[in-house]
């Protein structure tokens, strides 16, 4: 039985083991997948110990995506652009790193939610590992302009510089949100909702009649942003559950060479989760 794991912080409630168990049943693959809590700074040692126990691949979630990047000997082009890794594969005793977040998000938005991203002006809130994973894929999918805003502007500037498209991807200050115009897509890649009950204060001036709101988080963490989107009267509101399933399918294919069917797995997870879309 091949061994895989999710490395993160407080991952006990993550549906990732359930997702990969379903994919493995579809493919007829004997696979163990578990969640492993790792404290910041401890990822390299945890990866070494996992490999020594027969681990062959892993997913990585907050706050370790940039540490995973540093732990890899080889990187995919999209991981190199993002500067963050969420998928690891052991190759001859060394870690190969990829980033499936962006591909997962675009597949969920364009496929499951039928959103055409081409020509849209998009606002990306946040500049951490999650934002770094999705930003290149949004540009590749045809977003006309990507404005990156982060409470620490230096991180936003670093992400924009890494993307290398100053005409399409640039930064603004958080305190200027009320005056930067409206967007057809607003994406929350921050972890603001991790503080229980904390409101997310965003100006409604960011929205127009066509605006879609997307939170890369799901569950309780997504509640503040989704509540703001509903208060703004937006018709297209999407949480990160579909992205989670789609990026997991990308990881599964990297490990096993088989592309699983995501629709039944998403439907199963959605049965136990609130539906975020209002239309």
TrEMBL record:
CDD domains, alphabetically?
Answer: NAD_bind_Shikimate_DH (cd01065)
Q: Where is the SDH C-terminal domain?
A: 240-270
Repeat as UniProt keyword: no
Swiss-Prot/TrEMBL keywords: Amino-acid biosynthesis, Aromatic amino acid biosynthesis, NADP, Oxidoreductase
EC?
A: 1.1.1.25
User: Could you tell me which residue ranges the Shikimate dehydrogenase substrate binding N-terminal domain spans?
Assistant: 6-88
Enzyme's top EC category: oxidoreductase
InterPro entries linked to this entry: Aminoacid_DH-like_N_sf, NAD(P)-bd_dom_sf, SDH_C, Shikimate_DH, Shikimate_DH-bd_N, Shikimate_DH_fam, Shikm_DH/Glu-tRNA_Rdtase
Q: In which pathway does it act?
A: Metabolic intermediate biosynthesis; chorismate biosynthesis; chorismate from D-erythrose 4-phosphate and phosphoenolpyruvate: step 4/7
Q: Which domain of life is it from?
A: Bacteria
Q: Which residues bind shikimate?
A: 14-16, 61, 86, 101, 218, 247
Q: Which Gene3D superfamilies match?
A: Leucine Dehydrogenase, chain A, domain 1, NAD(P)-binding Rossmann-like Domain
Which parts of the sequence belong to the Quinate/shikimate 5-dehydrogenase/glutamyl-tRNA reductase domain? 116-192
Q: Which reaction does it catalyse?
A: shikimate + NADP(+) = 3-dehydroshikimate + NADPH + H(+)
GO MF assignments: shikimate 3-dehydrogenase (NADP+) activity
Which residues are listed for NADP(+) binding in this entry? Answer: 126-130, 216, 240
Q: Is GTP-binding included in the keywords of this UniProt record? A: no
* Active-site residues annotated for this sequence: 65
Entry's family note: Belongs to the shikimate dehydrogenase family.
Tell me, how does this one assemble? Homodimer.
Q: What does this protein do?
A: Involved in the biosynthesis of the chorismate, which leads to the biosynthesis of aromatic amino acids. Catalyzes the reversible NADPH linked reduction of 3-dehydroshikimate (DHSA) to yield shikimate (SA).
This protein is called what?
Answer: Shikimate dehydrogenase (NADP(+))
* Species assigned in the record: Pseudoxanthomonas winnipegensis
